Amino acid sequence: MAGDGSVRRMAARIALAHLPTPLEPAPRLAAALEMDDDALWIKRDDCTGLAGGGNKARKLEYLCADALAQGCDTLVTGGGRQSNHVRMTAAAANKLGLGCTIVLSSDPPATPTGNVVLDLVLGPRIEWAGRLDYVALEVAIDDAAERLRAEGTRPYAMPIGGASVIGEQGYVACAAELPDDVDLVVTAIGSGGTQAGLVAGLGDHAKVLGIDVGARTDPVDAVAHGAAAAADYAGLPSPVGMPQVDSSQVGAGYAVPTVDGRAAVDLAARTEALLLDPVYTGKAMAGLVAARRSGRIERGTRTVFLHTGGLPALFAAAYVDWIRSAH
């Protein structure tokens, strides 16, 4: 029973991920940040196992179950050229014997690198849509689904990042994997679905700090509405408080790496052998570092950094010079 007397609703799920993911202590990173030895932990959602791992596997378990329940035969979604979500959607489709169309907001690269290589190996139908903003890409996903429907298929359209009330149930469930004494979870916020689901599961916006990576213009609204809807869908009380979103790490924009992000990538790798990416987790770790240094995160705050994956982006041509550079 939920705390307000309502019955918790368990959304349909199909197993695609290796769960629960590890929760690892990070004492060397904690020491570098002048935190207590047992204050910092890493939730390894880069280890979900689906075609390279990442947080989208949790969402896809619920989205794909919904697609199958509706009798759909093709998954349709979209993202940037180095989208982890489209890579993992293609993988999920293959495991379930479904077709897959992905819409990428980019022109085709001269030489495929990073996630694009994996997309080509997995073999979805790829539509290169040119540079599109967040809203235009959502429209392009719906348009692709309509074209497929006209061709006689039964498409299931997923929003960017799987950020829907159904997809967010993956992180409602993830919240139950965290220890009761956790004070704060720090995560990257792109589409907003991961933070929304965590907040819904934990019941309090103050327990989740989202580090904005610049994917959308309305991250606070997305988390506020998403968390309330995800909690309602799960039969949980509406979360208390207001979304905690830090936009100080966006830099020049989405997928544009930053100096602080590079420092965070180096710090995580050289203290805990933790590999982060330039788009999401590098900026998220930079946000955690900034929050600690400003005092927003105190020395003894029991903090979990959610590693959402994204390793293939380290091998993208766009970031070669960034990787080579000193800081």
Question: Quick summary of this structure?
Answer:
The protein is α/β, with parallel strands linked by helices.
- Whole-Å distance between the termini? 52 Å
The total beta strand count reads 10
Radius of gyration based on Cα positions: 19 Å
Q: Sheet with the most strands? A: 6 strands, mixed
The unreliable regions are 1-6
SS-derived structural category: alpha/beta
Spatial order of strands in the largest sheet: 1-2-10-7-8-9
According to CATH, the fold-level topology of the largest domain is Rossmann fold
Number of helices: 11
Percentage of residues in helical conformation: 25-40%
Shape: globular
**Overall pLDDT score:** 96
- Assign the CATH class of the largest domain: Alpha Beta
SSE blueprint:
Elements: E1 23-25, H1 27-32, E2 40-44, H2 56-69, E3 74-79, H3 84-96, E4 99-104, H4 115-122, E5 125-128, H5 134-150, E6 155-157, H6 169-175, E7 184-189, H7 193-202, E8 208-212, H8 219-234, E9 244-246, H9 259-272, H10 281-294, E10 303-307, H11 320-324
Parallel strand pairs: 2-10, 3-4, 3-6, 4-5, 7-8, 7-10, 8-9
Antiparallel strand pairs: 1-2
Helix pairs in contact: 2-3, 2-6, 3-4, 6-7, 7-8, 9-10
Can you offer a commentary on this structure?
The protein has a six-stranded mixed β-sheet with strand order 1-2-10-7-8-9. Strands 5-4-3-6 form a four-stranded parallel β-sheet, sandwiched between helices. Helix 2 (56-69) crosses helix 3 and helix 7 packs across helix 8. The N and C termini lie far apart (52 Å). 38% of the residues lie in helices and 14% in strands. The protein is of the alpha/beta class and 327 residues long. Strand 3, helix 3 and strand 4 form a beta-alpha-beta unit. It has two domains: 23-53 and 163-324, Rossmann fold (3-Layer(aba) Sandwich), CATH 3.40.50; 65-161, Rossmann fold (3-Layer(aba) Sandwich). Mean pLDDT is 96; it is low at 1-6. It has helices at residues 27-32, 56-69, 84-96, 115-122, 134-150, 169-175, 193-202, 219-234, 259-272, 281-294, 320-324, and strands at residues 23-25, 40-44, 74-79, 99-104, 125-128, 155-157, 184-189, 208-212, 244-246, 303-307.
